[in-house]
Amino acid sequence: MGSRSSHAALIPDVDHIRRETGFSQASLLRLYHRFQALDREEKGYLSRLDLQQIGALAVNPLGDRIIDSFFPNGSQRVDFAGFARVLAHFRPVDEEDATIRDPKQPEPLNSRMNKLRFAFQLYDLDRDGKISRNEMLQVLRLMVGVQVTDEQLESITDRTVQEADEDGDGAVSFMEFTKSLEKMNIEQKMSIRILK
Amino acid sequence: MGLAIHMAFSSWNWLLWLMVLACSEASSYVNESSNSTAQQAPDARFAASSSDPDERISVFELDYDYVQIPYEVTLWILLASLAKIGFHLYHKLPHLMPESCLLLIVGALVGGIIFGTHHKSPPVMDSSIYFLYLLPPIVLESGYFMPTRPFFENIGSILWWAGLGALINAFGIGLSLYFICQIKAFGLGDINLLQNLLFGSLISAVDPVAVLAVFEEARVNEQLYMMIFGEALLNDGISVVLYNILIAFTKMHKFEDIEPVDILAGCARFVIVGCGGVFFGIIFGFISAFITRFTQNISAIEPLIVFMFSYLSYLAAETLYLSGILAITACAVTMKKYVEENVSQTSYTTIKYFMKMLSSVSETLIFIFMGVSTIGKNHEWNWAFICFTLVFCQIWRAISVFTLFYVSNQFRTFPFSIKDQFIIFYSGVRGAGSFSLAFLLPLSLFPRKKLFVTATLVVTYFTVFFQGITIGPLVRYLDVRKTNKKESINEELHIRLMDHLKAGIEDVCGQWSHYQVRDKFKKFDHRYLRKILIRRNLPKSSIVSLYKKLEMKQAIEMVETGILTSAAFSTLYQPERIQGTKRLSPEDVESMRDILTRNMYQVRQRTLSYNKYSLKPQTSEKQAKEILIRRQNTLRESMRKGQSLPWGKPTGTKNFRYLSFPYSNPQSARREARAAEPTDDDGIHPGFQPLMFSAHSRAGSLQERRQTQAMIPMKSLHRGEKALSFSYRSNTSWEDHAGWGRRDAIRPKPLFYAVDEEYESGEQTEEEISATGTRWIAEHRRSREHYKSHSPLLHRK
């Protein structure tokens, strides 16, 4: 690994990315290699097609949405900083970080809130800050096999929204979403071990 | 419902057992009655009739001795198979205990029957039969089904752990037992150091893979699997090598004559035997891969070549007193990659199945022997020896695990946690290997052989039953799942979404490994090896195309009968319903939960899974198909809505399309897929141009990423020049129970063609391609790359 450190200089903006994402030098280097490997034509950024080349994503029911999450704000390209930023959400949470963090600084990308926000945007396609019933239905449709009839799906959707919705507007806002998942161990569920 | 199955299972099983018991009883009675003729040689049968001229021609004769050996062996194997059927009928059982338990029980049962009827068991197991016939299939199977990429990534740790671990265990147990034997009170004084060391070496042969099936659902990570697997793979070889060396020492008669020179020679021999075996294996592997390059016209002999060369490598190594086990392992590992691409689809399946079958038969026979030996008079019981053996086995395994991993953790990128190490320690279950080695000890050199056999049996039974059954709950407990209570529907949905998300992001991250060495090897492989060892252009035969057309018809039907009709998407465009606040009853909630649990798509697991005893057919290949069809539909829908494409002028360079799919051979597809093999690791393949969407079906418990079956040509046209390809390999990890079956990709219907004709002519920028995804186009490519091949959609096992 020692010989790799000289390559860190190749990463543009490496210090800025490090501060923003919290990755270690070694992890960033590995991510950069991965980025380069995905970027087959060496354009310096990734397009949707590059991500679609990852075969396993094609059989992931949420594959398209995951790919979309790499392209915020409708852009069609993602550079390494953006790539690392998305993946930073999945860094495992360090216990010590939470306590000694400087409250004035923005929350690290892999905090619980940010993880939840990331998951939230998978549901909320129109980015209005709420998961409407329709959006919930779409997600459910994606994740469920074809044997489930539409009526069943609709009633499940109704139930889902009903359970989380507190102010009765028929949609789940981000706070309601967070609240409904307060008992879940998000930090563990949305962390990938190798991304230390 | 579980109860009904249980009832069915038990009644079936009773029938089976009764049948089998009747058979064995019959055979034993027959034997008793023909005892008088038992002394005659088989061909005396022919002589008998002519020696007695007065005898009439009898209408009905019985000659059991002629068929005794094969008959009984067949009966045993059949019995074990029936037991396995019963075992798997009750679907919870494989989770509770490893299959070795079952085999032991069956063996004990047969042993009991044989003992009870005073039957003389046929001499199936002796040294040469074991080493020449029973052992190679077992080793070959474990070598063949080993996942190569993770193996080579972790090879340092695996060698360190397996090699040193076996040595530490062997010598540790041997020495400790020697000290115990020195204690006069136990009456073991006549067992000298060498014999103890030998016993240590044979008792340290573990078979941890047997327990893998029990805890695989606990999402154990890939590295851990590889360590366990790698250990199982190399452990047998090392034990046998040690065993042979120590036997050679023992044969030197005088213990006092052993000088340091001999010990050094022994060590050197150990290394030479090991490395020499591997070297032989690799050579034979390459030779057989090379030969399969030329067998396209006689594909029926391909399995034969594979098996014969592997076996030959074993025998050749054994001739030179090198390690045949390591040779056959190395041969299997080397050969697999190239052979897979060269052989035809059916040969590939045949090889897989036959291998499993052979190894299963061998193992069954050995376990039956174990059972027969258990229930018999050949025991010598010595409390001290046996108890201390048990104790030392555990202690030394713990010592070796924790110290060796402590050291290797310093050098690893991803160290093993204590929990992982504990699992490795606890999976030290003994199997057929140690018993066989004990059984085959020459009695002349080991007057206390019976003691060794008894001790081995006790250790095996103890570890298999006790550790095998408790490891499941233990691992699940260690996982510490916090959500014990029932989750609300909300939570279930979100949890599943997050699991999918996590799996997806993991895929984006790819496999992180030591790139440099791997890349170098891959380059070398590409440039030289593949050119020599892999077939070139494969001719199409009409039969093949016909077959493919038939498959396509099935694909069309499947889509047309509404797997995903556009009605499913109509919900997207429904106006918002006024939501009434209905109070749902608990039953409704329950039924919803039920629907969700049953129907939600499984998360793709990245961990490996391996079942030693079966090739389970994948049950949820439908899942992949559905997802893929759905995606295509969505893309088609979105394209229909006219989102984006400036389908302008026709592309001049567009290669001509077929309206019916030209299917090339599966091999090229597989080769494609192989060429895309890095995709499964990195998701991309540099220079892999054409559109190939080859989905891999993966046979359940095989860690083989195999097959390729259909390729869905998906293509986006680029500005005239390059065709970007969507090469995809569904890399589902090897899963057993959560079943990802053979993922057969679906072929697009020709309808798609007709529909898309109007869009065909487009050219677009890359950005737009990514926006609208892909199109269905069949593309004919140049040279050896990328033929679309199809594979049987509904591939039946």
How would you describe what is shown here?
The complex is a heterodimer of chains A (196) and B (797). By secondary structure, chain A is mainly alpha-helical. Chain A has a domain at 12-88: Recoverin, domain 1 (Orthogonal Bundle). Chain A is 52% helix and 3% strand. Chain A is built from 12 helices and 2 strands. Chain A has helices spanning 14-21, 25-38, 48-52, 55-58, 63-69, 80-88, 95-100, 112-123, 133-143, 150-164, 174-180, 186-189, and strands at residues 130-132, 171-173. Chain A has a two-stranded antiparallel ribbon with strand order 1-2. Chain B has 797 residues and is an all-alpha fold. Chain B is built from 29 helices and 6 strands. In chain B, strands 2-1-5 form a 3-stranded mixed β-sheet. A 3-stranded antiparallel β-sheet of chain B has the order 4-3-6, with helices on one face. In chain B, β3 (714-717) and β4 form a beta hairpin. In chain B, α12 (260-292) runs antiparallel to α13 (302-319) and α18 runs antiparallel to α19 (449-479). Chain B is globular and about 90 Å long. The interface between A and B is large, with 77 and 85 residues.
